[in-house]
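Dear Dr. H.,

I hope your travels went smoothly. While you were away I took the liberty of generating a structure for the chain from your last submission, since the lab meeting agenda had it listed for discussion. I wanted you to have the full record in hand beforehand rather than looking at slides cold. The sequence, exactly as received, is reproduced here:
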Amino acid sequence: MKTLKNKLNPEIPAGRVEQTSYRDLDRACVERLGQLYRGVAPPERLKAMENLPTRFVVRAEFEREYRTISGQKPNPEVLGCSQGLEGPALVSMESPQLVPEITMHERVHQLSDPRAAQLLGGQRYEGVTQDLALKALDKTPAAGEASGYPEQRASAHELRELCGDQAVEKVYFQGEPSELKACLDRALGDGRAEQFRKTMRTPA
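The corresponding predicted structure, in token form, is as follows:
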């Protein structure tokens, strides 16, 4: 039997009989995020996330439910879907080796502030989400290794290198952009900061 190897649970059986192990993985993801961000993310959001176990489904069911949620058919490379805290995240089981990363990614989405995507802009929001997921998994992709959102991560890295993790994570987890705005003003000056903010929708 194939196994999934990851930092949270070294060997997770893959296939249709893995549902119990996937639930263990999901609980481990929630516990890990709680350890990392309990002082940053609101406690009520952490609690709500704990009460929404991820659903691991076959591809046909994933596509059906994705269409119900979004009104669109998912692209073939889309393997996860988050509704925030309105419902459980969905993870397709078609690529078992990617399930830990996808599960953590969708769990990080659930922990984000509802305003984060608008404040950061869609590209950077996805990039920050994937960065945080990889950090929680203690994983750094090797050159050429498949990992989601490479372009979005590059955009997120630009912002994190400019203003630091704390400012970005305050926006991501708390919807609080003041520290990030001040950093952009200091680092770029009014003109360039305003141009940079247009790609983020951060309040002036």
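Two observations you may find useful: The chain is about 55% helix and 5% strand. The chain has two domains: 1-111, 114-204.

With kind regards,
E. W.
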